[in-house]
Design a protein that fits this description.
Shape: globular
Number of strands: 7
Radius of gyration: 22 Å
Largest sheet: 7 strands, mixed
Number of helices: 4
Strand content: 35-45%
Structural class: alpha+beta
Helix content: 25-40%
Length: 178
């Protein structure tokens, strides 16, 4: 009786799946930083000329300009601070295409509210001149959480500003003998 074994790395390649996942995670990190910075030039540099972009149930659009239009619209919202986090990156090569999946969370600190958007990416990456590029970006939003506005200021622990209800003078007087 034959037993089945879990699918492992493709025996026809010597590529380390962990390294492939790490390379895709690096591309996702560069992508997140570029989106958060509103850097259309950086976004352009990380996609193929015929890049596809699919958002939820919307029809797929193709080409660099269609891809960049998504981020132009994001930039036009003028969100004071936006932070994307991409995790749980998996990557698998089939021929020239590296199929990836990842979770994302985008926190948007807007005027008067904070939005947290969670979802998944299911992208295709391709290798060009030793770098990975996005050949197809697929964004699926799972949930959006609406929260009150977040504070724009922060006081590190142990600083005068961190002591609630205290003034800097109170802090100095209480810590004069430390």
């Amino acid at each position: 009786m034959a037993t089945s074994t879990p699918a492992g790395p493709d025996p026809t390649t010597t590529e380390d799946p962990a390294l492939l996942g790490a390379r895709s995670a690096r591309l996702y990190a560069r992508y997140a930083l570029a989106v958060d910075a509103g850097d259309l030039g950086a976004l352009r540099a990380m996609v193929t000329d015929d890049v596809g972009v699919t958002r939820g149930d919307l029809p797929t659009e193709s080409g660099v300009e269609a891809f960049l239009d998504v981020y132009r619209a994001h930039n036009a919202m003028q969100i004071p601070v936006c932070r994307h986090v991409v995790t749980n990156v998996l990557a698998h090569r089939t021929g020239d295409v590296i199929t990836t999946s990842a979770y994302f969370q985008a926190t948007m600190f807007e005027q008067g509210r904070t939005r947290v958007v969670t979802g998944t990416y299911a992208d295709d990456h391709v290798e060009r001149d030793g770098d990975l590029l996005i050949a197809h970006k697929r964004i699926s939003v799972d949930r959006v959480v609406h929260l009150p506005a977040a504070e724009a200021r922060f006081a590190h622990a142990g600083t005068p500003e961190s002591v609630a209800g205290s003034t800097a003078e109170d802090w100095s007087n209480n810590h004069a003998h430390d």
